[in-house]
Design a protein that fits this description.
Shape of chain A: globular
Number of strands of chain A: 0
CATH superfamily of the largest domain in chain A: Tetracycline Repressor, domain 2
Helix content of chain A: over 70%
Oligomer: homodimer
Largest sheet of chain A: none
Distance between the termini of chain A: 51 Å
Number of helices of chain A: 10
Strand content of chain A: under 5%
Order of helices and strands of chain A: HHHHHHHHHH
Radius of gyration of chain A: 19 Å
DNA sequence: GAATAATTCATACGTTCGTATGAATACCGG
DNA sequence: CCGGTATTCATACGAACGTATGAATTATTC
């Protein structure tokens, strides 16, 4: 009953549907989210999804690209910064933690898409590919200047990304099981610091002034 | 009412429903999996789920515990083995990779349970808790004998677990994006070795004969 | 072998689903 | 003001959903 945004006309309706769809899809899964609920909570008419996105699935793919793009953009910025490779990898970890904390829906949306078994839409694949290239770019730079332990590019990138994603995803269960609340900013900062240290030790050669 | 010790033919139906439910739930999600499809593919009658598990949700929780328990049991065995803590951590990583490769449904099931937002069933929480205790037990042992870098117990355990789970979960997308097929045993062994080395460097102090 | 319990089965009920349809309403260049 | 396009809206439709119900069948026990 609480419209995410008052739909004035056209573009407003579209963005309200994307915002509401993102929340409802993440919470209930693709099948669990009904067109009726999304349109009602977005303050639009039942037919709005069909009209603007063709179908429920059309809205879903629009939601995916809308939520993935800003994250990968920020990873790209972190990767392009000045500094030693290992420090830029730390920035990537930080970007992931921050963005996922602000958008906890994202991992759920992504993994539900993957779990569905069907091949991901081309747009989504392209975005993920871009993200992988940013990270492997940093890694290769570190291998070239001898500051990072050599290893498999994609697997190393996955090692970096998996921890922020997994911790964000499992946050409710982690609180239930271990009493650690990653929703709390202080605790999340602690987790981010832990992962950054872990990645540093795992990928870099020991450095004299290692923290 | 659900009999706790059903004799005869009933047990076959129960296990057929659990096996089929596990596959279908993992593939289509909770809402996407229909009672009609599960019962049909299990070769049982439409009413069998209601009769044996009370409801669709009852079957779902039975599936979760049935698939989680053997994994945690194996982690417990690995944790109880002789050897240095860092090596037993490597065994845990290996157990995860092997078990998840044989049961790729598991992470999807878990994820959907977490993403649903509702608190996890007590039985599931207890199993996860047991798993966390096995791993933190190894860690604390390593901290006591000085072979492991001190750190947060639960966060360190999450760092270990997150990578096998994430890689298994994202395997289809990883193949689509990077052309790396974790379904192939050789590639999976390479990934396991990578993660074991990563964990070793990330958690242990550098050792003279480090492999 | 009859009585009793356990299980399977066919079917029905009410609900909710995604989408289609066509009328109503708002916007806009002329 | 007007004609046309874009959007919103109310409603309808057929399909699929989870579960309930009671009869039919199979197993167990005396």
């Amino acid at each position: 009953m609480t419209p995410t945004k008052a739909p004035g006309r056209g573009e407003d309706t579209r963005s309200a549907l994307v915002a509401t769809g993102r929340r409802v899809f993440a919470h209930s899964g693709y099948d669990g989210a009904s067109v009726r609920r999304i349109t009602r909570e977005a303050g639009t008419n039942l037919g709005a999804i069909t009209y603007h996105f063709g179908s429920k699935r059309g809205l879903y793919e629009a939601v995916l690209t809308h939520v993935l793009t800003p994250l990968v953009d920020r990873v790209g910025e972190a990767a392009a910064r000045a500094g030693r490779p290992i420090e830029r990898l730390g920035c990537v970890v930080e970007v992931f933690f921050d963005y996922l904390a602000a958008n906890p829906d994202l991992p759920r949306l992504m993994l539900q898409e993957v779990a569905a078994g069907r091949p991901a839409p081309d747009a989504v694949v392209a975005i993920i590919q871009r993200n992988a290239m940013y990270i492997t770019g940093i890694l290769k730079e570190g291998w070239a200047d001898g500051s990072l332990r050599p290893g498999h590019p994609l697997l190393s990138a996955l090692s970096v990304v998996s921890q922020p994603v997994y911790m964000t995803l499992m946050a409710p269960l982690i609180r239930q099981v271990g009493g650690v609340d990653l929703g709390d900013p202080g605790t999340r900062a602690e987790a981010a610091a832990h992962v950054m240290a872990f990645v540093r030790s795992g990928l870099a050669f020991a450095s004299p002034e290692a923290e």
